[in-house]
Design goal:
Elements: H1 18-27, H2 30-33, H3 36-64, H4 67-80
């Protein structure tokens, strides 16, 4: 089996305000200040992660408000209540 290959690299040109670039450099960790390409890559990765987290949190909040899911959770909790006294203590 062939080893996985790295994702292809794409070149893109963007127009950014000089003040935005300078502010990004100043806010960046020292290790990224000298490599704007890497700084942009890290910023995009962080943005993607934040968006995925936001979508997940919104989905969880929506599920929490769903009466059918709340009912199922109550049923499961009640059904497993007998296991709470399994002799393991409170974890202290």
């Amino acid at each position: 089996m062939k080893p996985p290959t790295a994702s292809p690299t794409l070149r893109r040109s963007v127009v950014l305000a000089a003040t935005l670039v300078e502010e990004a450099r100043q806010a960046a960790p020292e290790s990224l200040r000298g490599n704007f390409n890497r700084l942009v890559q890290k910023a995009l990765e962080e943005y993607i992660r934040a968006q995925k987290n936001r979508v997940f949190e919104e989905s969880m909040a929506l599920m929490a408000r769903d009466p059918a899911i709340a009912y199922e959770c109550r049923e499961a909790s009640e059904g497993l209540a007998h296991a709470e006294g399994d002799g393991l203590g409170d974890g202290s």
